[in-house]
Each structure stands twice: as structure tokens, then as C-alpha cells.
Amino acid sequence: MPVGPGYPRPPQPPKRNRGLIIAAVIGAVVLGASAVGAVVYRGVTDPHGRSEMDDLTAGRCVDKPSSTGTVYSLPTRSCDKPHDGEVVYVGHLTAWENETAAREAGKTLCVTHATPIIEASTANAVVELMSYAPADEASYRKSTTVQCVAWATGGTKLTESLTGK
Superkingdom of this entry's organism (predicted)? Predict the structure, then answer.
């Protein structure tokens, strides 16, 4: 293509906005999730393959809880088998103000720290990011842990680790 005076500029190469789109979707889901919370008690893994929220570490693959409401534990799965989600980041609240503030602080931790991990993942998956934080001051005194879980969407399952752990 000729270049120079009198010739139009060459077209710009197409922009790749995949990371931006993923970040926008994750951000919208996290900010829109209003029923986020978890009460954390002593951490134990039971023989039925469930782990207390406080015991879940980044890279741990999980299935969705069977009940709604406050989440105390999640079923754990091998990451190379079909599973509903993965803990992608674990952080800590720095102070207790109230339940609403804890939820917002948990969401902020997850958006800030888990979103880049998901964007860097080689797994081809569409996920929703949800934060699980202590639901009350008594729980906060036992554990300040916030888990950021990426859940597969649309009834699909994840078949590999998002974090590579």
C-alpha cells in the first residue's frame, strides 16, 4: 500500500479488548453481588470432602454449596475433574465496622487481586467472581479471611485450574 502525501493513512490494526471485557464482566458481577457473606468458624476438612471457608486456600477447586444463605463450608474437588469454581485469591479484612462494610471490603479485595489472576489464566472459561467474608463481628474475631471464588457460569463446569496450582 503506497504511503506518503496524497495517500490515505493505512488502517489501524484491530484492537484486542479481551482482558478489558473480562475485567468489566467480573467487576459488574462482583459489584452486583449483594448477598455475599460467610461465617467462618474453626477450620476442619471433614471426611465428606468439604472444607470450612477458613481452610480454603488459593488454587483449591470447589463445588457450589447445596443450600443458599450463609456459607460455612464448600465441597472441595480435584481441579482436573469437572468442578463449579476455584478459590483464586485469599485476603484479609483489616478492621470490622459492620456487615455491609465487610462485604464491600471483600468485594474490593477480590476485584483488585483476583481479577488479574483470572485474566492471566490460560483456561478458556467465563466466570463470575464472588467474595466470601465474615458475616458478623464474632466471626471476624475468629478469622479475618476473605476468599475470592471464581464460579463457572451458565451451568458449565471448569475442567482445569484457573490459577495453575
Answer: Bacteria
